[in-house]
Design brief:
4 strands, 206 residues, two-stranded antiparallel sheet, 2 domains
Length: 206
């Protein structure tokens, strides 16, 4: 538990190059607590006034993102591939299930100390515990690959974090949002990108 707590504070402080024993220094804890105070949103301004309570700020942020995320519009244009001179390629290899070696290579390329998503796992966990979890992770990834959506609602969620763009941020638009997704979803998207990357050269050359 002490090791887990140290790792959590280490992520909060963003002092990723600390050595053994440095976690007990005043600098380490001051840095972690100062970041927490800096990232805390005291209040938010809107056209109707100022939101001070947690409930009012939550509603204001929720309404803002509900109006900006999830809306779709019809696509008015598309590509005419014959006109672009695109030559069809054999993409049957993209339909092969992911192997343990392929998944392990992708995990090793991930940064170990990035901020975790709702599941709380980081890349360091997957790297350290690979021999224990490799069968389960491979099964989970290939279940997604087979488009089996059973229990997908548990995975299809994220924590939206607001980072101030300027020191005197007062409105929601003054914050830059980042989405912290589940580690398995992040791993799956990286696997798809890595597998598709060799086939993108022909598109880039058009």
């Amino acid at each position: 538990m002490a090791a887990i707590e140290k790792a959590r504070i280490r992520q909060n402080s963003r002092l990723t190059n600390i050595r053994c024993g440095d976690a007990n220094t005043k600098l380490f804890h001051i840095r972690a607590s100062s970041r927490a105070r800096k990232n805390y949103i005291q209040c938010l301004h809107n056209d109707n006034g100022i939101a001070h309570t947690h409930e009012d700020k939550e509603k204001l942020i929720g309404d803002y993102f509900s109006n900006h995320i999830g809306s779709t519009s019809p696509r008015p244009l598309t590509f005419l591939w014959p006109t672009l001179g695109y030559t069809p390629q054999d993409l049957s290899s993209l339909e092969d299930p992911f192997t343990q070696e392929e998944i392990k290579d992708t995990i090793n390329s991930m940064t170990g100390d990035k901020a975790p998503g709702p599941d709380g796992f980081t890349g360091a966990f997957f790297k350290t515990c690979w021999e224990i979890i490799k069968v389960d992770v491979t099964a989970a990834v290939n279940t997604l690959f087979d488009m089996n959506s059973q229990g997908f609602d548990l995975l299809n969620s994220a924590n939206i974090i607001l980072l101030p763009k300027k020191p005197d941020a007062k409105r929601v638009t003054d914050y830059r949002h980042i989405s912290l997704i589940h580690s398995v979803a992040k791993l799956f998207s990286k696997l798809l990108a890595n597998r598709l990357a060799p086939h993108l050269d022909s598109l880039v050359s058009i």
